[in-house]
Write a structure and sequence with these properties.
Layout: E1 5-11, H1 15-26, E2 33-39, H2 46-56, E3 61-65, H3 72-80, E4 87-92, E5 96-97, H4 101-111, E6 115-126, E7 132-135, H5 146-152, E8 162-164, H6 182-191, E9 195-208, H7 223-238, H8 243-255, H9 264-273, H10 278-288
Parallel strand pairs: 1-2, 1-4, 2-3, 6-9
Antiparallel strand pairs: 4-8, 5-9, 6-7, 6-8
Helix pairs in contact: 5-6, 5-8, 7-8
C-alpha cells in the first residue's frame, strides 16, 4: 500500500491564492494523502473557506485555525505536529503542485531509504502575468548529508521539499527563530541521519507577488536576517564538528548585509579578506539590530 503523505500548508491572508493551491493538491495522481492546513488568524475569509473544504471532504482535511496571529514559526509548528503521514510535503498557501509531484517524490524516497529530504525544481512565476521568471534550481542542485545543508543554506525551495517524518526534529521548528526557521529545520532533520536528494524535474510552481516575505525590501536589517545569523549561533553550539561549514554560511550571511550598513561594502569585503575585522563587524551588527542578534 502507498504510504500516507501529509501535505502541510501554512497560510495567512492568502485566500485569493489558497483555493488554487488546494485544488492543485486534490488533482494529484497520488491519493493517499491528508491535507493539513494551519491558518494564522486570517481576516480575509480564509478560515470560512477552509471550514467549507473540511465539510466537503471529510477525513481528508485537518484544519488548524488560530484565533490570534502567532507568526510563521508558531504556525509552522501547528501544521508540523498535526501531521501523521510517513512523509510531509511542505507548501505555502500561495504555491502550486504539478500533478505528478507527490507520486514521484514518494517513489524516490521509498526506493532510497537513506533519503531524509527530497526536493525538486520549481517554476518560479509572476502571479499577475502567469509567466515564468526563472527556474528555482537552475544552478544549485546540491545533494549530500547535513554538511551540504549547513554550507549552502536553503537551496531547496520549501514548497518542493518532502521530508521523512521520523527524521524531523522532535521539537519541530525552533521558536527562537520567529520568521526564518526552515533552514534549521532542514538541518536538524538531516542531523538525525540520511541525505538530501534532488529530482531534476519541475514538479511545482513558486508564486512571486508583492506580498512575498522575500519581496519586502526595506533599508534596515530584518528579522529574517537576524534569524539566519542566530541559526549559525545555534549550529555552533549544537554541531561544533561542522565548524568549517558553519563559518562558510556565517560569512555569507554577513556578506549579504553589506547594503544595510554604513560603508557596508568596504567593511564586509575587508572582513572577508582579513578575519581580524570579524569581531568589529559582529559587534556592530549586534548593536544595530538592537541586540537581537547575539554573537
Amino acid at each position: 500500500m502507498n504510504p500516507l503523505v501529509s501535505v502541510a500548508i501554512i497560510t495567512y491572508n492568502q485566500k485569493e491564492y489558497l483555493r488554487e493551491c488546494i485544488e492543485s493538491i486534490l488533482i494529484q495522481n497520488y491519493s493517499n494523502i491528508e491535507i493539513v492546513i494551519a491558518d494564522d488568524a486570517s481576516i480575509d475569509g480564509t478560515q470560512e473557506m477552509l471550514r467549507d473544504y473540511e465539510a466537503k471532504y471529510p477525513n481528508k482535511f485537518i484544519v488548524k485555525l488560530s484565533k490570534k496571529n502567532q507568526g510563521i514559526t508558531a504556525n509552522s509548528n501547528l501544521a508540523h505536529f498535526a501531521c501523521s503521514g510517513k512523509y510531509i510535503a511542505w507548501m505555502g498557501g500561495d504555491d502550486l503542485m504539478l500533478p505528478e509531484k507527490l507520486s514521484k517524490q514518494v517513489d524516490f524516497m521509498e526506493k532510497n531509504p537513506d533519503c531524509s529530504i527530497c526536493y525538486h525544481n520549481l517554476d518560479t512565476f509572476d502571479s499577475k502575468s502567469n509567466k515564468t521568471l526563472y527556474f528555482f534550481n537552475k544552478e544549485n542542485k546540491y545533494e549530500g548529508d547535513v554538511r551540504k545543508s549547513i554550507q549552502f543554506g536553503t537551496f531547496n525551495g520549501a514548497c518542493s521539499t518532502m521530508v521523512r517524518t521520523e527524521k524531523t526534529p522532535k521539537n519541530g521548528f525552533n521558536q527562537v527563530l520567529p520568521v526564518a526557521s526552515d533552514w534549521l529545520y532542514w538541518i536538524e532533520t538531516l542531523a538525525n541521519g540520511g541525505t538530501i536528494n534532488y529530482i531534476d524535474d519541475i514538479l511545482g510552481r513558486y508564486r512571486r507577488h508583492d506580498n512575498n516575505i522575500t519581496n519586502k525590501y526595506n533599508s534596515t536589517i530584518g528579522q529574517n536576517h537576524i534569524d539566519h545569523l542566530n541559526t549559525c549561533n545555534i549550529l555552533l553550539s549544537k554541531y561544533p564538528q561542522f565548524l568549517n561549514e558553519i563559518r562558510h554560511s556565517h560569512s555569507n550571511a554577513i556578506l549579504s548585509l553589506r547594503h544595510y550598513l554604513p560603508y557596508g561594502s568596504t567593511l564586509i569585503y575587508a572582513f572577508m579578506i582579513k578575519p581580524k575585522f570579524k569581531l568589529f563587524l559582529v559587534i556592530a551588527i549586534h548593536f544595530i539590530t538592537f541586540k537581537k542578534f547575539k554573537p
